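Duplicate of #3305? Posting structure anyway:
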């Protein structure tokens, strides 16, 4: 795996058009590639799912995430760091524990990009 740093995608980034709406320009493709690269690992995809399943505004303590995997705590922390660097999640330390939540709008942006427009303009 590459040791390349992932850049944080700002919350105010312009949302990409749907996959079938228009071709992506270079910047949009680069931004989305960073997100998909971060989600391309099964552990990170599961972590994202566990965090996102708490609903909008929900947060998860790292103490709830770590036992779900047969991996060391430093490995889980590394995967969470990559999700943060990709702009998918954010966190806050409270005493001993760190709490994670999905960045507002991230899932909507991904969903909008992946949604195929139906004939007549209605979304799938």
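Output from current build:
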């Amino acid at each position: 795996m590459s040791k390349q740093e992932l850049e944080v995608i700002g919350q105010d980034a312009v949302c990409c058009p749907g996959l079938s709406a228009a071709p992506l320009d270079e910047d949009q493709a680069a931004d989305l590639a960073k997100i998909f690269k971060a989600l391309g690992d099964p552990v990170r995809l599961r972590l994202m799912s566990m965090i996102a399943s708490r609903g909008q505004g929900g947060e998860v303590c790292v103490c709830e995430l770590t036992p779900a995997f047969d991996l060391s705590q430093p490995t889980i922390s590394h995967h969470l760091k990559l999700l943060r660097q990709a702009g998918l999640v954010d966190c806050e330390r409270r005493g001993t524990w760190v709490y994670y939540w999905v960045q507002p709008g991230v899932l909507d942006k991904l969903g909008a990009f992946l949604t195929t427009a139906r004939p007549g303009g209605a979304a799938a």
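Confirmed duplicate; merging threads. The two ends are 35 Å apart (CA to CA). The first helix runs from residue 26 to 39.
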